[in-house]
Design goal:
- The complex is a heterodimer of chains A (about 450) and B (about 260).
- Helices cover about 75% and strands about 5% of the residues of chain A.
- With about 450 residues, chain A is an all-alpha fold.
- In chain A, strand 1 and strand 2 form a beta hairpin.
- By secondary structure, chain B is mostly helical.
- In chain B, about 80% of the residues lie in helices and about 0% in strands.
- Chain B contains 10 helices and no strands.
- Chain B starts with a helix and ends in an 11-residue tail after the last helix.
- The chains are: A mainly alpha (about 450), B mainly alpha (about 260).
- Chains A and B meet through helix 2, helix 3, strand 2 and helix 15 of A and helix 3, helix 4, helix 5 and helix 10 of B.
C-alpha cells in the first residue's frame, strides 16, 4: 500500500469527520432545546415564548443548513476513499449506514423543510409535531451512526464467509455496548454544547445591556440549568467508557496511562494473535486528545457549579458582567472537549479500522496520491470556508438578537392590506389559464 | 431479495432525478428567469420548500447503494473520485448559497449567493452528465473521457435545465413566469412539458443502471433479509410525507420565502 495515499486519506477523513462532528454537536442539542421551547410556546401562547423559539430556531437552522452538506461528504467518502472497508465489512457497516440515511436522515430533512417553510401555513399542533419528529429522527440518526462506529471500535455479532464479514447476530450489533455508551455520551455532550452556546449568546446581550433583558435573562438560565445536568450525564457515560476500555481496547488504555511495560505486554500479545506489526497507536494523539478532553471537562465542571448557584440570583443574571464575559469565553469549551474526545476514541484504535479485523492500510482505496491530494485540498478548503461561513452567520444573527425577520417571519402576501388572511392566494387566477389554446 | 434491492435503488435514483432535477434545473436558470434581486428571490422561492426534501433522495440512493451493494459501492465511488469531488463541491456551493442568501448583508452578498446557486446547479448537472457518460458507455469504474463524455454531460445538463424550466412555469408568477413561458414555447399546458421531462429524467438513471452488475454484487442474504424489508416498510411513509409537502406548498409563489 502506498503510504502517502494512506496518510492523505486518513487526514482527509479526520478533517471531514471532525468538521462534520462540530456542526452535529450544536445541531443535536439546539434542536432539542427549540422543540422544548416550542412545546411551551404552543401551550402558553405567550409572544415572548414564541419569539424565543424563532430566535434560537434561526440559529439552529443556520447551523443545520451549513452542517448538512458536510455530512454529504462523509457519506460518500466511505466508498470514495475507503473501498476496502465497504468491501470487507460492508455487510454490517453498510446496512447501518443505509438505515441511518433512509429511516432517520431522510425523515429529519423532510420534516425540517416542513417546519421552516410551513411556519405560518401549518396548524400550530402540526408545526409542533414537525419539530419533534426532526428532533427524534436526529437522535435516531446519531444512534445509527454510532452503531457503525461502535462496530469499528468493538466488532460484535459478525461471522465470516469467504473472507468477508457477514451479519450473524443483528441484536448484538444494535446493542453493542461500544455504540450505546458512545450514544449516551454524545447526546449529553450535544445538550452541553447547546447549553453553553445559549448561555454565551445570552450573556453577550446582557453584557451589552440590550433592551431584551427579559428574553436573554430567561435564555441564560435555560442554558446554565441545561449545562449542569448534561455535563454530569456526559461524565458518567465517559467514565463507564474508560472502565470498559481495558477489555475492549487494552492498547489504548495502556497508551493513555503511559505504562511502558503494559504497552510492551499488549504489543507482544497482539503480535502473537495477529502476526508481526506495530500495534501501538500514536501516543501524542491518543494521550493529547484524552488530556485535552479531561482539562476542558474540569473547566466546564467549575463553570457549571458556579453557574447553577449564580443563576439562582436575579441580580447576578442581569448584572454580574464578569460572569457574562466568562460565559462568552466558555462557548468553545464543549467543542474542544467533543473534538478531543473523538480524537482519543478514533486515533487510539489504530492501526485498526475494524478493531482486530481489518487494518487501516488494507481499507484504503487503490488511488493515486495525486487524486487523493486533490480531493483533500478541495474538501479541506470547502470545509474551512463552511466553518467560517457558519461562525460568521451565527455570530451575526446572535448579535442582532430577536428581530422580526428570518425564521417564522410572516411573508404571506395578502396579509393586512385587504383585510383577508392567507386565503387570498387560492383565488388568484392561474397565469397558465390566460394562455392561447395549444396549436397542433 | 436482490431484485427488491435493485428496485429500491432504482426508485430512489429515479426519484432524485425527477424531484431534485426540477430544483437544480430552476437553479441553473435563475439569472435568466429573474433579472432583479427581487425576481431572483421569487425564483428561489419557487423551489425553496422542496429542495431539502428533494436532495435527500440522493442521500437515500447512496444509502441503498452502500447498504445493499457495499462492495460495488466502494469500487464505483473510488473509481470515480474526481467526478464525485466535482459533484459534491457543486452541491455544497449551491446549498450554501441558498441557505445564506437571506441571512447575510446587502445586495452584493445576495448577488454572490445567487451566483453560487447558479454555478453550483450547473456543476451538479454537468457532473451527473459526466458520471452517466461512463455508465452509458459501459465502463462504470473509470471517469469517461473524450467527446462522448463532453456531449453526454452537455445533453444531461440541458435536460436538467428543460426540466427546471417546466417546473418554473408551474410555480412562478409575474415576469419570471412570462420568461419561463416564453422559453418553454407554446407546447400545450405547462404540466405537459414538465411531465415529459420528468419521464426522461426518471429514465436516465434506470438506463444507466443497466450497465451495473447489481444482482451479482449484492450484500449477503442475511443483511438483505433484514435491510430490504425494513426499507420497504418506511418507503411508502416517506413518499406520503413528500406528497403532503408538495400538497401544502402547491400554490404558485407570489412572494419571497425564508431563503
Amino acid at each position: 500500500m502506498n503510504q502517502d495515499v494512506l496518510d492523505l486519506a486518513r487526514l482527509q477523513f479526520a478533517l471531514t469527520a471532525g468538521g462534520h462532528f462540530l456542526f452535529v454537536a450544536l445541531t443535536l442539542g439546539l434542536a432539542t432545546v427549540v422543540a422544548v421551547l416550542q412545546t411551551r410556546a404552543t401551550f402558553s401562547r405567550k409572544p415572548l415564548h414564541a419569539r424565543m423559539v424563532r430566535f434560537w430556531g434561526q440559529l439552529y437552522v443556520i447551523n443545520y443548513a451549513v452542517g448538512i452538506v458536510t455530512g454529504l461528504v462523509m457519506e460518500f467518502q466511505f466508498g470514495m476513499a475507503w473501498s476496502g472497508l465497504t468491501h470487507e465489512a460492508g455487510n454490517i457497516l453498510g446496512a447501518s449506514l443505509a438505515v441511518e440515511t433512509i429511516v432517520a436522515f431522510f425523515v429529519e430533512s423532510t420534516f425540517l423543510g416542513l417546519w421552516i417553510f410551513g411556519w405560518n401555513r401549518l396548524n400550530r399542533w402540526a408545526h409542533l409535531a414537525a419539530i419533534w419528529i426532526v428532533v427524534l429522527t436526529a437522535y435516531v440518526s446519531a444512534y445509527w451512526i454510532l452503531v457503525s462506529n461502535g462496530f469499528l471500535n468493538h466488532p460484535v455479532g459478525y461471522g465470516s464467509e469467504d473472507g468477508e464479514l457477514v451479519l450473524d447476530d443483528p441484536l448484538a450489533v444494535l446493542t453493542n455496548p461500544s455504540a450505546l455508551l458512545a450514544f449516551g455520551h454524545i447526546v449529553a455532550g450535544a445538550l452541553l454544547t447547546a447549553g453553553f452556546f445559549m448561555a454565551g449568546v445570552s450573556a453577550y446581550h446582557l453584557f451589552r445591556r440590550s433592551p431584551e433583558w427579559e428574553f436573554f435573562g430567561r435564555s441564560l438560565r435555560i442554558g446554565v440549568f441545561l449545562s449542569a445536568p448534561a455535563l454530569m450525564v456526559t461524565a458518567i457515560f465517559g467514565g463507564v467508557q474508560f472502565a470498559v476500555l481495558d477489555t475492549f481496547q487494552p492498547m489504548k488504555s495502556a497508551v493513555f496511562s503511559g505504562k511502558t511495560a503494559e504497552i510492551a505486554r499488549v504489543q507482544a500479545e497482539l503480535t502473537e494473535r495477529f502476526g508481526p506489526g506495530d500495534y501501538v497507536p500514536s501516543e501524542a494523539w491518543t494521550r493529547g486528545g484524552a488530556l485535552l478532553m479531561l482539562i476542558s471537562f474540569a473547566l466546564m465542571m467549575y463553570l457549571c457549579f458556579a453557574g447553577v448557584i449564580l443563576a439562582a440570583f436575579k441580580k447576578a443574571v442581569f448584572r454580574f458582567r464578569l460572569w457574562h464575559l466568562v460565559l462568552m469565553a466558555a462557548v468553545p469549551l464543549p467543542y474542544i472537549a467533543m473534538i478531543s474526545g473523538w480524537v482519543f476514541r478514533e486515533s487510539g484504535r489504530q492501526p485498526w479500522v475494524v478493531y482486530g479485523l481489518l487494518k487501516t492500510e488494507d481499507a484504503v482505496s487503490d488511488l493515486s496520491s495525486g487524486t487523493m491530494r486533490l480531493s483533500l485540498i478541495v474538501f479541506t478548503t470547502v470545509f474551512f470556508l463552511l466553518a467560517v461561513l457558519n461562525a460568521w452567520l451565527l455570530t451575526r444573527h446572535a448579535r442582532r438578537g430577536p428581530v422580526d425577520s428570518g425564521l417564522g417571519h410572516d411573508e404571506r402576501p395578502s396579509r393586512g392590506g385587504d383585510g383577508k388572511d392567507g386565503e387570498g392566494e387560492d383565488e388568484a387566477p392561474d397565469p397558465a389559464d390566460a394562455l392561447p389554446a395549444p396549436r397542433y | 431479495m436482490e431484485t427488491l434491492a435493485i428496485a429500491l435503488l432504482a426508485f430512489f435514483a429515479a426519484g432524485w432525478f425527477v424531484l431534485a432535477g426540477a430544483d437544480i434545473g430552476t437553479g441553473m436558470l435563475t439569472p435568466w428567469l429573474g433579472r432583479s434581486d427581487r425576481e431572483r428571490r421569487l425564483v428561489l422561492a419557487s423551489f425553496a420548500p422542496f429542495f431539502l426534501g428533494n436532495e435527500v433522495w440522493l442521500v437515500a440512493t447512496a444509502g441503498v447503494l452502500i447498504g445493499c451493494f457495499p462492495a460495488l459501492e466502494g469500487e464505483l465511488l473510488s473509481g470515480r473520485l474526481l467526478v464525485l469531488v466535482a459533484l459534491l463541491t457543486g452541491w455544497i456551493v449551491r446549498d450554501a448559497g441558498l441557505w445564506s442568501r437571506g441571512r447575510g448583508p446587502g445586495p452584493r452578498w445576495r448577488a454572490a449567493c445567487d451566483a453560487a446557486v447558479t454555478c453550483g446547479s450547473w456543476t451538479v448537472a454537468l457532473s451527473w452528465g459526466w458520471l452517466l457518460a461512463a455508465l452509458l458507455t459501459g465502463r462504470p469504474y473509470a471517469p469517461a473521457t473524450g467527446p462522448t463524455a463532453v456531449l453526454t454531460a452537455l445533453a444531461v445538463a440541458a435536460l436538467f435545465a428543460a426540466h427546471g424550466l417546466g417546473f418554473a412555469t408551474l410555480r412562478l408568477t409575474g415576469l419570471p413566469y412570462e420568461r419561463a413561458r416564453r422559453l418553454v414555447g407554446r407546447a400545450g399546458r405547462p404540466w405537459q412539458s414538465f411531465a415529459f421531462t420528468a419521464v426522461l429524467m426518471a429514465g436516465l438513471p434506470l438506463w444507466a443502471g443497466t450497465a451495473l452488475p447489481l444482482a451479482e454484487r449484492a450484500a449477503s442474504p442475511t443483511t438483505l433479509g433484514l435491510l430490504v424489508p425494513a426499507l420497504l416498510v418506511v418507503t411508502p411513509f416517506l413518499v406520503a410525507v413528500q406528497a403532503w409537502i408538495w400538497h401544502t406548498f402547491r400554490h404558485r409563489v407570489t412572494g419571497p420565502s425564508y431563503l
